[in-house]
Amino acid sequence: MHRIRFLLSAFAALFLLLSGFNAIAANINDIRVWNSPDRTRIVFDLSGPVEYKFFELKNPNRIVIDFSDSKFTGLLPKSGELGNRVSKIRTGKHDDLIRFVIDLKSTVRAEHFTLIPIENYGDRLVLDLYAKLAKKQKSKPKKVDDEFIVVIDAGHGGEDPGAVGAAKTLEKHLVLKIAKQLQKELNKVKGIRAELTRKGDYYIPLRKRRKIAADLNADLFVSIHADAFTKRSANGISVFALSQHGATSERARVLAQKENSADFVAGENLSQKDRDVAETVVDLSYQGQIGRSVALGSMVRTRLSRVGRLHGHGVEQAGFAVLKAPNIPSILVEVGFISNPKEERSLNKKSYQKKIVKEIATGVVQYAKKYPWGQERWRTSSIQ
């Protein structure tokens, strides 16, 4: 009897051991590719943590990733999705490994790292392919006759869809449409030049968005977003600026926390920490960025009251990471709640988008007239 109990215990232990081994063996469920001007991002969706090996080969240039004890259950990306850095992605079994070979069109700088689950994503392996570093061009100091530069930032993108509407509208697509229209509208005004942080469906880290504005010597930075809430009745347009002393409301604090998590959702490699928040805020307070941001936000918010209901009271403030561009007045506009079915339907209409764009642009021009870059041209500028 004692021997039988011992054998049963041994079999149970072996079963648990084998079960545990199977639990850790993860599958590669899918592969997604995102292309931006700066990089090609390849994301491997995993069913759990995996062990992998990464190495590069030359003649021809290619990258190899081996996964141990794994299976590929998805589909390889189509050639049209690969962009201008990757020519093909191949896969096959190699001994007890599943191997992926990424054929490259040119020499790249590669970074790879894994991500733990967050929000709707499980474990991921991210491979970022960058073109060889170009020579950095120095920013030219502004002259009196330079254009008034407005940088328009469409929130989220790529791996980060942002909020999802009641009818499955993705924030990243909606705000990019509005941002592109706003660029066209502002570029109609003599003396104003509008630039976009992103022009397609790819993610740009928050720090880099404001760096784009700084490199362009921007006069203003406007970030476009769409809101969402658990209660579908929530509605209205709101405008935010950076805070010097904490959030002006609980909603502003929660929203800033959500927007600041975008880098985590998108899967950015955050090994290089951003500057200390306190140091940044001190810099900004000396330059008067926050005061000018609130002034800009007030003008834009007043104009947007012509489009529909406003949410909240005045320009709210919180520690939005994307708004921390030293010396550049910066605002974040939530164009409405896509979690509200009625507002989502409105936001998807071109006529409604046009109204939003028109009023944001008018608010920007009003600000430029009040705070011109040494030119009288703003006294007569108007949006036709």
Summarize the structure.
By secondary structure, this protein is of the alpha/beta class. The chain is built from 9 helices and 14 strands. The chain has 2 domains: 109 residues, Immunoglobulin-like (Sandwich); 232 residues, 3-Layer(aba) Sandwich (Aminopeptidase).
List keywords for this structure.
384 residues; alpha/beta; Immunoglobulin-like; Aminopeptidase; 2 domains; 6-stranded mixed sheet; 4-stranded antiparallel sheet; 14 strands; 26% strand; disordered C terminus
Descriptive overview:
This protein has 384 residues and is of the alpha/beta class. It is elongated, with a radius of gyration of 25 Å. Mean pLDDT is 85; it is low at 1-23, 272-282 and 374-384. 39% of the residues are buried. The protein has helices spanning 2-24, 171-186, 206-215, 250-260, 262-266, 277-287, 289-304, 341-347, 350-370; strands at 28-35, 39-46, 52-57, 62-68, 86-94, 97-104, 108-115, 124-131, 148-154, 192-196, 220-227, 238-242, 316-318, 330-337. The protein folds into 2 domains: 23-131, Sandwich (Immunoglobulin-like), CATH 2.60.40; 148-379, 3-Layer(aba) Sandwich (Aminopeptidase), CATH 3.40.630. Helix content is 31%, strand content 26%.
